[in-house]
Amino acid sequence: MNLPVREKTNGLFKIDRLEKLPLYELIERNLRDLILSNQLQPGDTVPPEWELAEMYGVSRLTVRRALDDLVRQDWLNRRQGVGTFVARPAITTISPSQLSFTQEMLAIGRRPSSHLLERRVCPAEAYVAQRLSLNEGDAVVAITRLRLADDMPILLETAYLSSQRFPGLEDDPELDNGSLYDCLAAHYGVTVARVDNSLKAVLLDENQARLLGVQPGMPSICSECVAYSPEGEPVEFSRSVAHNENSQFYFVFRRGES
C-alpha cells in the first residue's frame, strides 16, 4: 500500500520565489518535477487546495490555476467529491515527425509545399498569451504560411511562439521551406510531444479567401492547436483555416492505460 503523499514528499512542495515566473507556473513546474521523478506516482492523491496553498505560501486561487493547467495537460485528473490524483500515462506516444504537415502529406501520397507569407515579432494579444502561458503584451514570433498539397492551397496557418524562448527564430532561413518543428529541435533543443486541437466552423474573410483561391464568405474549418513539450510546457499556438474542397480531416481515437 502506497504511503500518503504528504509522508512520501514531506518538504518537497516548495517553490523558488526568486525565479521570474508567475507563482502558478512555479507550482506547476514543482508538481511536474515530483511526478517525473516518481516522488508522486500514478494514482497518488494530491493534497487539497487549501493544504497546498499553505505549503506554497500562496492563495488557493493560485493553486487552483496551477492544478487546472495540469489537469488540462493530463498530468492530473479530478474525481468529483473525491479529490485530485496523479494521472496514469497513456500508452500512445508520438514523435515530432507524426505532427509534421510534410510527413502527413507524404503519408497520403501528396506532394507538400509551403509559402512563407510573413514572419514578425509582435506583442501577444490576450488570447494568444493565455494559450502560451505568457503575459499579455509579451513578445511573440508570428509566422504565417500558406500550405499546399500538389501545388493546391489547402491551409492558411499562423503560428505563434515566445520570442524570449526562441530568440532569432523570425530570422531563421529554414522557415522559408523547412519544418518549424525540425527547426525548433535542431536550433533550440525543443521537441513537441503532444498537440491539443480544437475545431470550429467559420466564414472566410476576403484576405483568407484570396490566398486560398475561393470566394469570400465560404464556410471553412478553423483549427486552433497548442503544441506541448514532453515536460508539458506550451511551445506553439497556431490558428489555421482550411480550403474545404481540397482538404479533409482524419482522426484516430485510442483508449488505454499502461
Overview of the structural elements:
The model is unreliable at 1-8, 91-98 and 252-258 (pLDDT under 50). The chain has two domains: 10-86, Orthogonal Bundle (Arc Repressor Mutant, subunit A), CATH 1.10.10.10; 96-246, Chorismate lyase. It has eight helices and nine strands. With 258 residues, it is α+β, with helices and mostly antiparallel strands. Strand 5 and strand 6 (152-162) form a beta hairpin.
Summarize the structure.
The chain has about 260 residues and is of the alpha+beta class.
Q: Shape from CA axes? A: elongated
Distance between the termini: 19 Å
CATH homology superfamily of the largest domain: Chorismate lyase-like
Query: Which ranges are low-confidence, i.e. pLDDT below 50, for 5 or more consecutive residues?
Result: 1-8, 91-98, 252-258
Decide which structural class fits the backbone. Answer: alpha+beta
CATH topology category name of the largest domain: Chorismate lyase
What is the CATH architecture term of the largest domain? 3-Layer(aba) Sandwich
DSSP E strands, number: 9
The SSE order reads HHEHHEEHEHEEHEHEE
- Widest beta sheet: strand line-up: 4-5-6-9-8-7
Q: How many helices in DSSP terms?
A: 8
- The CATH class designation of the largest domain is Alpha Beta
- Let me know the average pLDDT: 82
Strand content: 25-35%
Radius of gyration, in angstroms, nearest whole number: 21 Å
Most strands sheet: 6 strands, antiparallel
Q: Bin the helical content.
A: 25-40%
Count of distinct structural domains: 2
Keywords:
2 domains, alpha+beta, single chain, three-stranded antiparallel sheet, six-stranded antiparallel sheet, 9 strands, Arc Repressor Mutant, subunit A, 8 helices, Chorismate lyase, 258 residues
